[in-house]
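Lab meeting, action items carried over

1. Structure of the two-component assembly. Owner: GW. Status: complete.
Input record:
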Amino acid sequence: AQSVTQPDIHITVSEGASLELRCNYSYGATPYLFWYVQSPGQGLQLLLKYFSGDTLVQGIKGFEAEFKRSQSSFNLRKPSVHWSDAAEYFCAVGFMEYGNKLVFGAGTILRVKS
Amino acid sequence: DARVTQTPRHKVTEMGQEVTMRCQPILGHNTVFWYRQTMMQGLELLAYFRNRAPLDDSGMPKDRFSAEMPDATLATLKIQPSEPRDSAVYFCASGLASGGHTDTQYFGPGTRLTVL
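Predicted assembly:
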């Protein structure tokens, strides 16, 4: 069955350090891929998305993600983390069989040390 | 700046009471989703509408939950009767979809429900 995995529940990085959040999916074809961010008490905000084309996608707030078909991954990266990036990050995947629905990963909570 | 709006933002009620949550999707969007978020279960899809028609409500407890779209600018999620285990944050999201294509979902700020 189609599934989305975010293997890291919590990640702590120092301010100014680089960040990579992992997302893997299980699917035979290329899905639609999204990263969302949720700050405490807020709704989910779209960071970036991949439908097709260039596998390196740029998003808001300095984030980027790379789609790797061979690894069924869509990892989120940022070269230098700011304290305001502390939040929960969700990978979401749209599988064609599911129509317009998205399957969300369990989320990764990012803590930023000053 | 088009946004999904949800009311109320917070709701505290007693067990057995009816709760109605409202969502105004982004104008022109044709899909609406209701999600529930808890610490234990994470983000769960409750119901999904396209062009105001319910396409999937398999995630919703049928005996007490109901979701409707009386018109294109309003979606409602109702719980009757409410129970303490319904305490959660309920999110509405909307999107513009054509064919079977999965498109971006834009989330509202959520309704934080507490059932005592």
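2. GW to write a short summary for the group page. Key points so far: Chain B touches chain A at residues 4, 31, 33, 42-43, 45, 48, 50, 55-56, 91, 93, 95, 97, 100-110 (CB under 8 Å). The CA atoms of residues 59 and 109 of chain B lie 21 Å apart.
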